[in-house]
Amino acid sequence: MFFEKMGRLLFAKIRLPFFIVLLILPPLFSALYLFSKTQMIETLQDRFFLAMKKGKTAFARKERKEKFLARHSKPDPYFLDKEIESLSFLTNEQVSLKQWLLHPALSHKDLLADRLHFLQSAENRLSFSEEEIQLSKLCKETVEKQRKPVEIDSEDLKKLLCQIEEIPTIDDTQKRPQLLITHFSLHKKATPLHNEVFEIQMELLKREFLTP
User: ∠48-51-52 over CA atoms, to 5°?
Assistant: First the structure.
């Protein structure tokens, strides 16, 4: 009864608008409090997801680094000889030359025979010489300079660049040095059969990582 009397007394003393304000304030403060808490929770969630994303990125970067080092550490020392310098170029032209040389009506075969001999010999194979070697605790860097220009076609160029630049289709389990093209020149020229080929000259930086 006491509270009922006090309520009637306050209601009689306080004007209606103030009384309505007093009624609205508690739920309003409660709503603001809940809103601030919600915002705080959302901020914490955003930070958590950002940290998780950064963690995944760092883990993926670490995994890529370990995979890279595993692939390029202690590689085959004869990789360049076996996989690059052994490549044969212009096989389509070689097939055409052989067919022309078998033609009974063809005269002046010497030019075509010389061309075929050039394509099949070591004269048109890549050959590199070591120009400079730098050694550190992490890796050994060697400048490999092409000894002489070679002639190739567009398909040969694609295969060669895939091998040097480690396009994903290349076997990624192969232990090989990292090869970087530091200089590359390409010129078009015509063959005795009036086909266009590319004459290329390049310089490579070979990195062999020493860590396991």
Answer: 85
